[in-house]
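User: My collaborator sent over this chain with a note saying "see what the structure looks like." That's all I know about it. Can you take a look?
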Amino acid sequence: MGMKLTTIDSIDHIGKDDFINNYLNPRKPLIIRKATEMWPALQKWTFEYLKEVVGDKMVPLYDSSKADPSKPINAAAAEMKFGDYIDLIQKEPTDLRIFLFDPIKHAPKLLDDYRSSSDLTGGFLDKYPNMFFGGAGSVTFLHYDIDLAHIFHTHFLGRKHVILFDQKWSDRLYCIPFATYALEDYDIEKPDFKKFPALEGIEGQEAFLEHGDTLFMPTGYWHWMKYLDGSFSLSLRAWDKSWAIKAKSLYNLTIQRKFDDLMKKNFKKKYMGWKEELAIKRANKALLENEPA
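Assistant: Without extra context I'll predict from the sequence alone. Here is the result:
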């Protein structure tokens, strides 16, 4: 039977009422193909242009290796100049990615080159949007965002494979306790259902993003992404209107994160081993009880 992956809805343009009623309120993913057609960035943001404006900055790089239990979840694997990294991902496949580095902070003039989706929703969070870069074959492991924001994720200069899951599937995805990522021992593209039986029958959505496509990911959605070409994305984040979700976001960012960091620091592999065992137990229980109903 495997997993049940359906295609994410896709549309060229959408009005505010249609978006709110059919995607924002029901928290349903959507790809808007031409939301960026008036962005200067669509033609302007070439690799060469980005190298011109921030090429000399040193950037942290992240690979696809399993997280070291003794280090923070966002510990970098390497470091190099941004311009050298751009040369690398244009030249050859690599699993090295950039996140937590925002070129716009170093070159504020880039702010003039994109437009927020304020015509669809309000409540945007970041003065400087997040940007993500990856080489062909690099993977963003399965996770959901700790702040529980809605995300408008626009892709540039290549293709990206995206798989999404609703938050209700968290236990079946082997969600790590006190964290927002899944057990890293399975390949979501080709899962071993004998070893990870809870993945059998789960329902998700997938799509292939191309240059200029904007993916709307509702709050709490699990996402896995694979760069099929050396390319990059920009994410704009907006609050969900629910005060319960805002409270959960605050809890995640403060109490849960600090507790998890403290336990990792003091107990390292023992603590991570316990969390992975608990993730497996919860997944097997959810499978046995046929959850979510």
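A starting point for your reply to your collaborator: The longest strand covers residues 231-238.
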